[in-house]
Amino acid sequence: MVFERRLLTRDRGAGLLEKLWLVPWSFVLLLCAIAAVGYVALYSAGGGAPEPYASKHALRFGFSLVMMLSIAMIDIRVIARLSWVGYALGVALLVLVAVHGQVGKGAQRWIELGPIQLQPSELMKIMLVLALAHWFHRASWERVGNLLFLVPPTLAVLLPVGLILKQPNLGTGLITAMVGGAVFWAAGVRWWKFALILASAAGIAPIAYERLHDYQRARIQTFLDPESDPLGAGYNIIQSKIALGSGGLWGKGFLQGTQGHLNFLPEKQTDFIFTMISEEFGLVGALGTLLLLALVVFFALAVALRTRHQYGRLVAVGLGVNFFLYIFVNIAMVTGSIPVGGVPLPLISHGGSAMLTAMLGFGLLLSVYVHRDAEFGAARE
């Protein structure tokens, strides 16, 4: 039976039903469970009504679920051949948003595509993973150790990171760089090269700090001392901590959160949705939500371990790290562990762009899983 399943994934002519049979439906149910948590939280954020947040969340997830399963049916080798095309599209969208993007909250990050408001920086992270995986997937250990071989992929990381920082979007720019670094590490790049980059970054940090925008420096200063401006820059994080602590072990109960429903909690439907969950469902609800999200990361790493080809392994690692950073940055942000950066909680926060890109990544991850035994060419010397 195992041999037959592998033959299906190696055969380009495997039918749709056979591929659907190979989909890990437990993972699909896991994503549905996380989206359901998001629906409940957004229902509460809307004042106990499906409008204006929860109903849109459900519709977006339904559409994205169909898109995810459709992508999962595409042969991973076809996706590999289109990797750099996707990268070029992502860069083009970043350039487009710099020229004609929508301005919001002091930043130019979105473009209108019909009824969809797209944030190209989120899509770029996915496209970058695919491009770097394609560059490294047939490279030998000796080739990966060659500094000249690393110049093109390094430039491929720096180009979108620079465009994202120009928006300005410091948080997403740093996450994009870290996602690219994760693929480099998984491909076998030596640790001392990362140490050299980190040392260089530490050296230019004071200069970079002086070039930050005023609101970015204010976020860092507020992170260090939120009480210095409790009604201004420090308001968000102070109210978030109050809501987190007031939930206790079991929470105040569904629709009973005072910080959220009395509008003390800012951006409760997006950046601070986890705070609202913690207030209403307590530590138990918060840990349960984190467990569901952690299972997604573990699945991505499990796919990387089970995949026979390097391209799929690198894609799975990159997508898993990207999802983990979404979670880590959002939770650390609302708990005051890092400066507030405007990163949503995937599949839970309100927002179409974040939902679309997250499910796109999961579709690619499922394609890797379904075609985990596909035959690629031999390594390049």
Descriptive overview:
The structure is a single chain. The chain has helices spanning 2-10, 16-22, 25-45, 54-72, 76-81, 83-100, 120-136, 141-144, 147-165, 170-187, 191-210, 214-224, 235-246, 258-261, 273-306, 310-334, 352-370; strands at 102-104, 107-113, 116-118. It is mainly alpha-helical. Strands 1-2-3 form a 3-stranded antiparallel β-sheet, with helices on one face. Strand 2 (107-113) and strand 3 form a beta hairpin.
Give the end-to-end Cα distance, rounded to a whole number of Å: 36 Å
Q: Tell me about the biggest sheet?
A: 3 strands, antiparallel
Cα-based radius of gyration, to the nearest Å: 21 Å
Structural class: mainly alpha
From the structure provided, what is the oligomeric state, counting identical versus distinct chains? single chain
Average the pLDDT over all residues and give the rounded result: 85
Helix content: 55-70%
Write the element-wise H/E pattern from the N-terminal end onward.
HHHHHHEEEHHHHHHHHHHH
The total of beta strands comes to 3
